[in-house]
Amino acid sequence: MGATAIALVGFAGWFVLLSIAMALYRLTAIQAGKPVNSFAADGSDLAPLGRRLTRARDNCYESLPAFVALALGAYIGGRLDVVDGLAMWVLYARIGQSLVHVASTSPTAVQVRAALFFAQVAIYLYWAVRLLVG
Question: Which site from 25, 115, 119, 132 is most exposed, i.e. has the minimal number of CB atoms within 10 Å?
Answer without folding.
Answer: 132
